[in-house]
Records
---
Amino acid sequence: MATRKRSRPKRSAAPKRGARKSARRPSRKPAARRRATPAKKPRRAPARRSRAAATPPSAIGMQMQHMDYTSQAMDEIKRFYTDLLGFSQYREMTGAMHYLAVSTGPSSSLGFMPPMEGGPDQWSPPREPTLYFMVHDVDAAYRTLSNRGVSFDEPPRDMPWGHRVARLKDPEGRRVCLAQQKMK
């Protein structure tokens, strides 16, 4: 075990002329030992989260929404979602199972695959849901996609629930809406 050497506090130099002497005597206690602290890393400002990136409240801890659809026309579907609508992040599996996964946002994606074996009554739902894509500027998206050759069922218009919506269909007739939250 190492022993500590006690040192006396250093006495200050001789007092300056005219200076009063202090009535206190210097303490003979050892100076408090300071621990060496590691160099502090510069603090970074906390990352700001945008509202869009915030995790939605969920009783099941949902982190991502993914919807699978059956498709009779995989090549047309791929072209529509990747080339025309511009979703550039996608994954395609071929071989025993053909599957297309298209990333539509930070926490959402769509999947498409040919029908499974069996009759249509086993794989076709009575009515598929509308694909609703929230965009920053629906009018700009409408112009851009129209210039790419996408045909719309309805141009953008204001809806009573507070969105501005343009409607179209994918190659297999699924309803697709591009929507923007209207400013109040």
---
Amino acid sequence: MNLFKVEIKKNIKGGIIWGIVLSGILSLYMAFFPTMREAGFSELMDGKLDMLPEGLLDSLGLTEMPDFSIFMEYYTYVFQFIIIGIAIYAMILGTKALSKEEGDKTIEFLYAKSVTRSQIVISKMISSILLLCIVILMVMTTSLVADLIHTSGKNTLMILIVNCMMLIPILVYWSIGFAISSFLKDDNKSIVIAISLFFGTYLIGMVANTIADLEMLKYLSPINYNSAAEIFKFFDNRIGAELNISALILSAFIFASGIVTTFIKYNEKNLLS
């Protein structure tokens, strides 16, 4: 039995819808770039944002107000919200992947086909990664088209770098979702759990950026490790720009832990109880 094909066929429509929606939102925002470039929006926002706490501005990616007349600064500001959508989708894919078979009572059917638990996990991981790639490629294509329209394709390489680097928090949330799924008995609450956990960590990151004494809590928020704007400035060789290397190492550890936890727990689980 080719479980991989079954999973793709079952979930491809949802993935395409996510891709269309996120690409549409990105297209809509990028359509405003010419207006932002010509209207002196950055100068106007600078005056308004001076009244807000620095920590809050940092959590919103506005510590240093982006120059919206520069394509990549405007793009990375908008892109951070698209990444939130992709990360949520990744976590939903993970939390529903294994628990759905138990909830739908199809696990007995899989056993009848002599499919091992490890095969189930591997098939679902590969299929969900492919679905994620479809969504990401749709968003990336939209980004490249916007760059082609507004700058004649001058930022192609930088867009590819930013998109690839932002795969890191997406995969972290995906692996956490799979680990959670291995503990769940059904998928009735999987979406609620995924969304709640994501926004819980996102809010923790905002609090950590706002209150200096709680700065260490930012490591509980993978989405806040390295923002799209920070990645762009680092690879654009901006003075003072740097990546949080500790966060990258932690991301790799969480990702690996999520994968290992999934295999161990799912193979130990009593699926027929």
---
Amino acid sequence: MNAAAVHAAMLEPTAATLSARSLLGAPKTTGTSSIPSAIRTRRAIHSEPSRRSRGADKLPGMGKELQTTSARLWKLIEERTHAGSDTQTIDRRIWDLFGEEWAIMFTDLSGFSRQVAQFGIIHFLQIILEKKRLLFPVIEKHDGVLVKVEADSFLLLFRKPASAVACALEMQRVCKSYSARRPPEEQVILCVGVGYGKLLRVGNEDVFGHEVNLASKLGEDTAKGHEILVTRAARELAGEIPGVTWETYDVEFAGEKSCFRVKY
């Protein structure tokens, strides 16, 4: 690699940088778009494109159909609907392409609809902003992956259930400390649900799976303010966590009859 190519490679944003920017809600950048214009100009002058890159420029978008995108998933799902299709083979292909094991966390804010009715949506958008400011650094600290934000809810992934629970504990403590200094209408009161299992992960766009559904039901519909509820699968793999006791909670949700409440 010549000196110009080395210099150009050093200017590219790293994967870790892009992950951190994505986590903190910064606009996504690819290629040279994140590089100052002066640097991009120097690269254009000093870096002669290779024969291979010049050829690739003539085929914009080529290769995207090979990525694990939602379009590729839904193309396989559509094939599954054809008369006489081999659904078992298609299902195996889908799981081979998209199947992963993760701990899943859903967070929700207690009293969203009630507070919007009382104080208006703009006030509550401010509360959502405060939630992001408070919790994004905690999520990053515990190596969480932010899949998406929907209104007052976060969908997060963690490699281990113990990491998800540890993150949830710190999130609750941070929110409680913040809320103790605020009037009721400005408090950030968090509800958390955690699951673990095999799921379909579609790039960084979305996830689908039974434990995704369970975590969603626990975090958004079942947990009360300040609660952390965990599915049986997540509890079994989380092990023992210092300062935490586990309480069986008999409640019906998404076809299940019980979960575990984290006592902290």
